Amino acid sequence: MDGNLNMIGMGLAGTGAAIGIGLVFAAYINGVARQPEAQRILQPIALLGFALAEAVFVLALVFAFVL
Question: Per CATH, the architecture of 2-66 is what?
Answer without folding.
Answer: Up-down Bundle (1.20)
